[in-house]
Amino acid sequence: MTKLRWGILGCANIAIRACIPGIRQSQTGIVSAIASRSLQKSQEKAAELDIPKAYGSYEELIADPDIDAIYIPLPNHLHKEWTIRAVQAGKHVLCEKPAALTAVEVQEMVTASEQAGVQFAEAFMYRHHPRYDRIKAIIDSGEIGDVRGIHGAFTFSNPGDSKNVRYVREWGGGSAYDVGCYPLSAARLILGREPEAVTTHAFFSPEHDHVDMMMSGLVEFSGNVALTFDCGMWAGFRNTLEIVGAIGRIEVPSAFVTPTEESGHFIVQVGNERREEKVPFLNQYALQADDLAYAAWGEKAARFPASDAVLNMKLIDACLQSARERSRIVMNES
């Protein structure tokens, strides 16, 4: 079987511990090269991970004719530049979330990929897992009644890591970019429509370059439904989603991070009846890699079009604007 040959643009932890193993567990991909701005570092990682090629610059990897697709786990402010450079070199791109710093930037990336005739995808791995298809099927069946609300939380506590790129405002630091993007995208996925308005409140920490270390928000959708969410980088760990229906609810205890054999399951409760829905133990990073590969080969349409990244970024833009202005932001339908 033909394999999609991946190049890894950077040695970030997410690449080493999650995406590279995911590509290797996929049906379609192999990891052929890794690059760093330090040749020594890339050579060390290549040796450690048994990757055939190591490059001392991102440009060299992008120029390699034996690379078909690029995975970009760089700091957020570098996503736009290196995505555009990669797609213009004819490479398919899987870019870590958030795709960029604004919806305008993401649209430029999408346009560049379309002009180059290659695939561009934002790396929201969780939504490739079949448990979300099952959740949507349960909702569509009417078992929990009409959806009345969604509650999502993604928080962790790491304030002492002063050199973390998440705490540099100009680099796209902050909890909305880093973890808030997950419940925001999940609500859009589950409801199948875009929000109408957003109101948020955030704790902008002077100790952390005034990035949002905690954000809480209300996202209004049509049909009298809303998402309430919070996200944070200076709060106890949570990674949950709850979908409340007119007669029942669905609890997803481990909603976004890679599920283990046990943590991937979710709960459906209607009245006094409560059951655990068991889902297969699958690597969602592998499923994500396969989705891009099949789209790149023209075998299947991408499950999530590149335009979805623009729409999710519009929502993040609105959340940050609302928190800074302390105001309700009405979303532009365009």
UniProtKB/TrEMBL annotation:
Superkingdom to which the source organism belongs: Bacteria
Stored InterPro entries: Gfo/Idh/MocA-like_OxRdtase_N, Gfo/Idh/MocA_domain, GFO_IDH_MocA-like_dom, NAD(P)-bd_dom_sf
Keyword Cytoplasm: no
Keywords of this entry: Oxidoreductase
Gene3D superfamilies per the UniProt record, alphabetical: Dihydrodipicolinate Reductase, domain 2, NAD(P)-binding Rossmann-like Domain
Protein name: Deoxyfructose oxidoreductase
Gfo/Idh/MocA-like oxidoreductase N-terminal domain sequence ranges: 4-122
A Pfam family hit: GFO_IDH_MocA
Domain GFO/IDH/MocA-like oxidoreductase: 133-251
PANTHER family in the record: OXIDOREDUCTASES (PTHR22604), TRANS-1,2-DIHYDROBENZENE-1,2-DIOL DEHYDROGENASE (PTHR22604:SF105)
Family designation: Belongs to the Gfo/Idh/MocA family.
